Amino acid sequence: xxxxxxxxxxxxxxxxxxxxxSIRAFLAQIAEKTEPSTGEEAATHHQxxxxxxxxxxxxxxxxxxxxxxxxxxxxxLWISHNSLRGIVTTVAFIYHPKIRRSAAMEIIALTSDKxxxxxxxxxxxxxxxAENWPDAWPDLASALEEMEEMTASDRICRAAxxxxxxSPQVVGWIGGIPEYDxxxxxxxxxxxxxxxxxxxxxxxxxxxxxxxxxxxxxLTIQLGxxxxxxxxxxxxxxxxxxxxxxxxxxxxxKGHPYEFYQKLGYAIIGVIPDANGIGKPDILMGKRVIA
Length: 291
Ligand SMILES: CC(C)(COP(=O)(O)OP(=O)(O)OC[C@H]1O[C@@H](n2cnc3c(N)ncnc32)[C@H](O)[C@@H]1OP(=O)(O)O)[C@@H](O)C(=O)NCCC(=O)NCCS
Known about the structure:
The chain is of the alpha+beta class. The protein folds into 2 domains: 16-95, no CATH class; 104-288, 3-Layer(aba) Sandwich (Aminopeptidase), CATH 3.40.630. Helix content is 31%, strand content 29%.
């Protein structure tokens, strides 16, 4: 039925469309289920709610069981239909990753005895970094070596599983290394299967990781995200010249993940100029994980 949404995300699963009696009741239900977590999300959420309330003639349809294999969650996607003109006038999209995650994904501790999951996670590492960081893990052997290191008992290694074709499959994973006697943890690495990106999995893995390090007494998470491919305005420039101005005015040119981390509350805390060759810096980011 529906294959793609207007934000470009793939929509799959058993789709059923149900007419709902009142858009107000529907939006109230969405608000209850989604609880926007950032100011920006809350603003958009509120704006969309207000826009919907101002169109009382619309009939709303909710689409159930999209992405999720359960009907217990209402997927916050609605299509409004102008009953007077008899045509679909608006396709609005109210959508929150928490919904998708809550019904379809679980995050587990990845240990080296889970061979299938280890292999799947290693393959994801190669594929996720291939385009912009081809030297990071060029093949399965180097990725498996990384996996072995990350599953050591003093580190954190967590995998997101989704039911794919009736069996659980790794769709992303995250690792962590303790530093400064465990007060700081380095987030390394983070990879989501390219086929599953843009579905809230990265966000869920980072949130889970934050909880894991919090439980271990950490104060801070830090990470480095290389720019080897002119993905930001911090590449191909002399960072020793006017460094902090350049950091303050950084722009994302090709989808560098620093912006993903910013959305999750991470700040740029520095940069290592020429970390990967002249003009190819490592962007350092950090977040305090206690209240
Ligand atoms: C970066 C990565 C982990 C993000 O995972 P994901 O599951 O695709 O991200 P999510 O769906 O959870 O996205 C959460 C938010 O970040 C945004 N986002 C995700 N990747 C982004 C990017 N590269 N640039 C800008 N914004 C991004 C999403 O649009 C979403 O924003 P929204 O809440 O406003 O809708 C994933 O794309 C990946 O594995 N990339 C390749 C490897 C990599 O870059 N790892 C991190 C290196 S340090």
